[in-house]
Amino acid sequence: MTRLTETAAGTYSSRTPSSRNLFERAKGVEPAGVSYRLRFFEPYPFFVKVSKGAQLIDIDGNVYTDYWGAHMAMILGHAHPNVLDAIKMQAEKGWHSGLEHELEVTHAERIIKHVPSAEMVRYASSGSEANFFAVRLARTYRKKPKIAVFEGCWHGPYDPLHFAVKPPFDMPQCGGITRASQEDTVLVPFNDLGGFLERVKHEELACVILEPVMGAAGMIQADKEFLRGLREYCDRTGTLLIFDEVVTGFRLGLSGAQGYFDVTPDLSVLGKIIGGGLPIGAICGRRDVMEHMDHRKHKGSDYAYHGGTFAANAISLAAGLASIEVLENSPVYEHIDRLGRKAREELTIVFEKNGFPAQVLGVGSLFAIHMTDKRPIKDARSYNLGSPEQSKKMFDHLLNSAILMLTPEMLHGAISYAHTEDDIEHLTSTIDEYIRNHKSTSQ
User: Are 303 and 292 in contact (CB under 8 A)?
Assistant: First the structure.
């Protein structure tokens, strides 16, 4: 198996003929030849054969250093031995019974132990699904239909939430979404408490939902005072504060973003890491709110329906529990946060010394490259000032240097326990090389 950087000549296409052929087959059976648009890039995506540690190996034998991490879910790296053992052990017992089992109780107890907002837990099959159930729960509890959603936050494709994710914010994000499905969604500005309060001053809301660190928008952090202001507003009005921690949950420490920012929401939505890289989602929060999912205590409009064939899947919970145990007992956060700081600091130096209009945002082990100058990036409107074409060119250079960062229009990085100092140095030197080549060809 040959690293792309070791091949002296040829292009991406010449290195990946098997992926090209398989993509032609895929186009006949899958729209765009992919299962998710985020996995597509020009001229075609490579097809993975093996994922191990911090590396991906495609069907042509090319090896890539992976900074995408299965949509940021693989905090320990791919196929961590503890997680793999847990999956194998559970598979031998059965992978899904459709009934209750001990793992869901043990896993929920572990979430409650670590997540400040969690007093009770219910499971779903994805973070998107969990967000849907969380909003329904908030509306049931509050007896109010309206919800506040922030510009640039991504909460999945549920119609009332699939709103103003990317500019232009006044246009539908895709087809098939009716005006009626979003008439109770109130759009509010991120990191602007005054603007938020002005926008909602005449509204009675069921909930305010946001990502404490916006993922799709390029790892833009919420200001702590902004979050505290939202908490005060919700306390004053009785509105529920929901943190979507599908990305940040167990990524920014065992207590997630709510522990990192020291602001506790009423409900939290989790996913990704809590399933060890297998499909999962969870809603957790205050007992008095969560109990509206209890069909024994509540009926009719007081009852928030929740369910799903694969809710609390045994293998997902076994993998998640094994992952959490590693996070509890190994210096994972010390390692990944150190590498995250190294990546952000060294990339910033590279951009500044070359006079290249880019900046790096992120926190902990997360980072994103914004192709724009030093203007502050505080929200989704300011990140849109960047150059997606420049980002795509850098993506191409990285890909041909055996490095994967997604998406091409906005490069995201999620560092795992399997990454090394050498990986970060390779990343920064490769981007430095791209910038020097770009400068020489543009002169």
Answer: yes
Interatomic CA distance for residues 346 and 161, integer angstroms: 36
Q: Output the CA angle 76-111-123, nearest 5 degrees.
A: 95
Residue 300: left (phi > 0), alpha (psi -120 to 50), or beta?
left
User: Model confidence over 48-58: pLDDT tens digits?
Assistant: 999 999 999 99
Confidence of residue 10 (pLDDT cuts 50, 70, 90): very low
Same domain? For 186 and 120 the reply is: yes
Helices marked H in 248-331 — which ranges?
256-261, 287-290, 314-329
Tell me which residue range forms the domain holding 373: 331-428
pTM over 0.90: yes
Which stretches does DSSP call E strand in 272-426? 281-285, 359-363, 366-370, 403-404, 411-414
Distance of alpha carbon 126 from the chain centroid: 12
Q: How far is CA 356 from CA 218, 359, 438, in A?
A: 18, 9, 10
Residue 52 lies in a domain: no
